[in-house]
Amino acid sequence: MTRRNPVFVAVAFAIVGGLPAAHGSDVAAGIEMVRVPGGCYPMGSAGYEKHELPVHEVCVDSFDIGKYEITQAQWKAVMGTNASKFDTCGDTCPVDQVSWLQAQEFVRKLNVQGGGGFRLPTEAEWEYACRSGGKRETWPGGVSAEQVFDVAWFNKASAGDRTHPVGTKKPNGLGIHDMAGNVWEWVQDKFVSPYPASPTKNPRIEAGGEDKRVIRGGSWNQKVNYVRCAIRGRYEPEFVDRSGRIGLGVARDPGS
Ligand SMILES: [Ca+2]
User: Fold this and answer.
1) Ligand 1 centroid vs 180 CA: distance in angstroms?
2) N or C: which end of the chain has fewer CB within 10 A?
3) Would 1 be classed as within a structural domain?
4) What's the total number of domains in the chain?
5) Tell me: the pLDDT tens digits for 22-32?
6) 137 occurs within a structural domain
């Protein structure tokens, strides 16, 4: 973390002191969000994986997205349990080992306890945010392949074969951390390949393709080409990755 988050302090104090853990309403208030101004951009990429094709123009309205991956402290406060394989990594590390269905349950409970409005980002929103607002960036912040270590925990042994506290690498151009690496992040959409031609405005893909949901950004376990902003992974919605590579971030519509 680049600065101390009062929610983490409160949760840590509550656990040490044997008091009830923070409520979901506290968690919701403590999730730092970044405003992403809407726009249009060429989603996907050419020259890498076939699933990133075709490169196609997509437009998204302004939205808010989490500055950090959802942490273990936030998950515990909302869900009452810590799902993570890397639970010894600590409260400020990303939650891992969660399915898409469990991520949806986290969002539902967070909204019930915290006032509403949170959701998973769509796949188009996620890539747009990763590319610092739809810029022609291969990795977050437009870094070169040699500079990816500055912005991401990745490359397996280089990351110590595990996750790390969120926000300990440099952010992208919008101030969002860990979009590359640390943990893959579930997004809302179903996995459809090749990308459908429509809709081009605020696409949210809930039909067609495989009965799988998309993960984005790669993890501590992936090599450099698999932590690009355009890389796509997918698993069944009930899939729990026991190697601890998949977590989530959240999004919200402005004013919600
Ligand atoms: Ca990530």
Assistant:
1) 5
2) C
3) no
4) 1
5) 676 788 889 99
6) yes
